[in-house]
Write a structure and sequence with these properties.
The structure is a single chain. The protein is an alpha/beta fold and about 400 residues long. The chain has 14 helices and 13 strands. It folds into two domains: about 260 residues, TIM Barrel (Alpha-Beta Barrel), CATH 3.20.20; about 100 residues, no CATH class. Helix 7 packs parallel to helix 8 and helix 13 packs across helix 14.
């Protein structure tokens, strides 16, 4: 696959790391059938690269990697590797033609996590990449904790990777410390060092999606994400959020992703790992197209685009008008019309305060049957004109 240049405003390439980084979330376990389903589904919906795991986890993981690599999918599969002979040899033995090597780049990670100096990091990056390139592999390099690294040192690493034949670098906001303006500035500078840039953001401050989108517009063509944002600690940038943010914010970007399919795998994955997806989760939550407040409901009924950025069908959902203490005539009329009635304005004038009182009493949603009961009571009392029944 030809490598993109990283020009701002280009076409994004989604690099999924659900099975690798998502699998590092405490309590998450992907068995082999689930891994196969994730890979085949992501490939089908348009994800072009998938980080499928790491051989450093042992023989069972290695066997899973062998099976995944044999799948007839269009996506390019690759492993995450430490820059050690054990990992490099294992990936070559498995037959991977594309690999990802990860190196610490902040002083704290180099000193504490790996016990290496800046010079040693640059030297090992060049040597490891050179070796794998000589074996016929396409190699990307992860800049671990890049958000806390000095840009001058990152340039040294990038130049070494470039000289050794690497295809791109992955800028990692490992602890989720960035804000969108800051990461945009750093990505723009990093992209000027001569290699395509991938961005990998964590969600510790709730900014992973925003940072990923900002980084894309600053020149990071490759977007490392996970389905539903599953990952270490507070998780990673969520693929569905990033894809929809690119498509529906600003001028809109063509993502190449099948949105209904992405919504489906997002919901399926949460069930597969034993977690409960919030009904109000952005993009894929089951209740994000429920409307209740008066002005809001009236606007949606007249024109959905007034309050909906994209149609619910795009994510396999349906619009629903929910009646509460805040709902006005339009919402209550909608409920009755769905049950086959056409209430007059006079009846609605009498019905609205009654239904709102029910909402206050119930402290929540007023059931359709309760609305109908009050509606019929008004009719039976002779306080309103008789409505026409739809279809009569």
């Amino acid at each position: 696959m030809a490598e993109e240049t990283g020009v701002p405003g280009g076409v994004p390439v989604f690099v999924d790391t659900t099975l690798r980084d998502g699998g590092q979330s405490p309590g998450v376990f992907f068995d082999r059938p689930t891994k196969m389903a994730v890979v085949t589904t992501l490939s089908r919906i348009g994800v072009r690269e998938i980080e499928v795991g790491s051989p450093c986890l042992g023989e069972k993981e290695i066997e899973d990697l062998r099976v995944l690599l044999s799948l007839p999918v269009p996506a390019e599969l690759f492993p995450w590797l430490r820059p050690v002979d054990e990992d490099l040899d294992a990936s070559l033995k498995l037959g991977f033609g594309r690999v990802h090597l990860s190196f610490p780049t902040s002083d704290i990670h180099m000193a504490v996590v790996r016990g290496v100096s800046r010079g040693e990091t640059v030297e090992r990056a060049w040597g490891s990449v050179r070796r794998m390139v000589s074996e016929g592999c396409r190699v990307s390099v992860g800049l671990e904790d890049a958000s806390r690294a000095e840009m001058g040192f990152l340039e040294d690493v990038v130049m070494a990777v470039r000289e050794a034949g690497g295809i791109r670098v992955r800028y990692c906001d490992t602890v989720g410390r960035h804000h969108p303006l800051e990461i945009a500035e750093r990505i723009s500078l990093l992209a000027s060092f001569g290699l395509p840039v991938e961005v990998h953001c964590h969600n510790d401050l709730g900014l992973a999606t925003a940072n990923t989108v900002s980084a894309f517009h600053a020149g990071a063509t490759f977007l490392s994400t996970t389905v539903t944002g599953v990952g270490e600690r507070a998780g990673n940038a969520a693929m569905e959020e990033v894809a929809f943010a690119l498509a529906f914010s600003g001028k809109g970007v063509e993502t190449g992703i099948d949105f209904p399919g992405l919504a489906h795998i997002s919901r399926w994955l949460y069930a597969a790992i034993g977690r409960t997806l919030s009904p109000y989760r952005p993009v894929v939550g089951s209740r994000i197209f429920h409307h209740s407040s008066g002005i809001h409901v009236d606007g949606v009924i007249k024109e959905p685009a007034n309050y909906e950025l994209f149609p619910p069908e795009l994510v396999g959902l349906k619009r629903k008008i929910v009646v509460t203490h805040q709902t006005g005539r339009s919402g209550i009329r909608n409920v009755l019309e769905r049950m086959g009635y056409r209430p007059s304005q006079e009846i609605l004038d009498r019905l609205v305060p009654i239904v709102r009182a029910e909402g206050w009493k119930l402290k929540g949603i007023v059931p359709a049957q309760t609305i109908l009961n009050h509606f019929m009571a008004i009719l039976e009392s002779g306080q309103g004109t008789s409505p026409a029944r739809q279809g009569s």
